[in-house]
């Protein structure tokens, strides 16, 4: 019996030890929420803390003097917290913050440990006098040859007064810094705290935009005033093409070698099912698995790595040509690359990457638990059954706490 208890304790400890993670969380994370400042105004916020049996809550930020924390169970477990904000009659124009910090407590009265901590916050913005626009961003994205796109500006009014009419002036330059297009966006009014995008249509065919990088310069005009700062951003005009930019340079003699090809494209979108066939100097034809070549946007080219394996038997040490043909969207491109066959021992070929280590550990833990549990039932339950058969002539006693199937 003592061994049986020890056996069960071992299983329980193993399960707990493999799954216990110390943490604390805050629900309704509202760090990006902006609350307009109202002189002498009041607002109430509710949010939850969880993932620990003992959580200490505190406030931070320059708005702390105006905040009241209502916590019905200080240092308790998961619960809902209320924060009441009572604003003064004046705050300096600009951003102000209030953070609620939840820290996992040690369980000792008045003692807070640093086991785990997280914080959530709000922003309160006090408006500037009169009109106060902020030119926040340029609207522009990568396009392909002869496509249309919208270019413009994103503006927010952080002033107390309405902006009656605002619009953007857009200038577009090519890689030689030559002005290729000048546009004016639509115009609009902007209320306090309001953010608006004002755009104009850029037609790549009309302005004869060739593949390459372009620079956008954007300025803002509002109620006859020119905003003092302009913004710049780049975008790319792409086309359906793929280039081989790198390949494996060295392979070891008489061995299996990993062979990689790096490709890229300026296409503004995804090119699906791209693969390569490589004619190697010893007569072998290699084929890579298919990949999708995805554009990251923001003027950057899409890139991908094609991978296969090459056995170099039959070749001596030396430099050879390999013909790489890339297949994509019903098209092909071919490039001849150099590969050096060298002396030495090739590194061990790694298995294709599958599950990560955390998942693998979890599976191993689960398997061990199942094996322990199965062994327990096999050994102890069988022993119990044999014992019952030995004294089958006596009525079997039951325990009120014993788990039994419900009676029908």
Structure description:
With 408 residues, the chain is mainly beta. The protein has 3 domains: 25-126, Immunoglobulins (Immunoglobulin-like, Sandwich); 133-238, Immunoglobulin-like, CATH 2.60.40.10; 243-342, Immunoglobulins (Immunoglobulin-like), CATH 2.60.40. The chain contains 2 helices and 27 strands. Strand 22 (270-279) and strand 23 form a beta hairpin. The radius of gyration is 34 Å and the shape is flat. The two termini are 33 Å apart. Residues 1-22, 108-114, 353-359 and 385-408 have low confidence and may be disordered.
CATH fold group of the largest domain: Immunoglobulin-like
Helical content, roughly? 10-25%
Overall pLDDT: 83
**What is the N-to-C succession of helices and strands?**
HEEEEEEEEEEEEEEEEEEEEEEEEEEEH
**Structural class by sheet pairing and helices:** mainly beta
General shape:
flat
Using only C-alpha atoms, the radius of gyration works out to 34 Å
Q: What is the CATH C-level name of the largest domain?
A: Mainly Beta
The description of the largest β-sheet is: 7 strands, mixed
Q: Terminal Cα separation, in Å?
A: 33 Å
Number of helices: 2
Strand content: over 45%
Instruction: Count all strands and give the number.
Output: 27
CATH arch. level architecture of the largest domain? Sandwich
The CATH superfamily of the largest domain appears as Immunoglobulins
Work out the count of structural domains: 3
Low-confidence stretches: 1-22, 108-114, 353-359, 385-408
């Amino acid at each position: 019996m003592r061994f049986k208890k020890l056996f069960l304790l071992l299983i329980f400890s193993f399960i707990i030890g493999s799954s216990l993670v110390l943490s604390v969380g805050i629900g309704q994370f509202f760090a990006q929420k902006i609350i307009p400042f109202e002189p002498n105004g009041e607002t109430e916020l509710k949010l939850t803390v969880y993932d620990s049996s003992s959580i200490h809550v505190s406030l931070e930020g320059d708005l702390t003097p105006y905040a009241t924390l209502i916590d019905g169970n200080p240092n308790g477990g998961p619960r809902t917290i209320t924060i009441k904000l009572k604003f003064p009659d004046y705050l300096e124009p600009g951003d102000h913050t209030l953070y609620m910090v939840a820290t996992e407590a040690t369980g000792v009265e008045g003692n807070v440990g640093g086991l785990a901590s997280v914080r959530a916050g709000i922003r309160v913005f006090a408006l500037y006098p009169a009109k106060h626009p902020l030119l926040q961003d340029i609207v522009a994205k990568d396009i392909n040859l002869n496509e249309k796109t919208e270019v413009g500006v994103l503006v927010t009014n952080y002033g107390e007064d309405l902006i009656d009419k605002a619009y953007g002036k857009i200038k577009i330059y090519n890689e030689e810094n030559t002005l290729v297009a000048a546009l004016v966006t639509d115009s609009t009014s902007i209320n306090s705290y309001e953010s608006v995008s004002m755009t104009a249509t850029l037609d790549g065919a009309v302005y004869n935009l060739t593949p390459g990088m372009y620079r956008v310069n954007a300025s803002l005009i509002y109620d006859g005033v020119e905003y003092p700062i302009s913004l710049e951003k780049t975008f790319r005009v792409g086309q359906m093409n793929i280039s081989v930019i790198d390949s494996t340079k060295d392979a070891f003699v008489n061995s299996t070698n990993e062979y990689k090809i790096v490709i890229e494209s300026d296409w503004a979108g995804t090119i699906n099912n791209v693969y390569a066939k490589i004619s190697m100097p010893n007569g072998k034809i290699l084929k890579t698995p298919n990949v999708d070549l995805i554009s990251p946007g923001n003027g950057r080219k899409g890139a991908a790595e094609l991978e296969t394996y090459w056995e170099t038997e039959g070749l001596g040490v030396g430099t050879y040509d390999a013909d790489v043909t890339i297949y994509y969207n019903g098209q092909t491109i071919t490039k001849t690359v150099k590969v050096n066959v060298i002396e030495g021992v090739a590194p061990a070929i790694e298995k294709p990457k599958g599950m990560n280590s955390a998942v693998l550990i979890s599976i191993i833990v689960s398997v061990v638990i199942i094996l322990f549990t199965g062994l327990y039932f096999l050994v102890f339950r069988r022993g119990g059954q044999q014992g019952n058969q030995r004294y089958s002539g006596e009525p079997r006693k039951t325990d009120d706490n014993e788990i039994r199937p419900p009676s029908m």
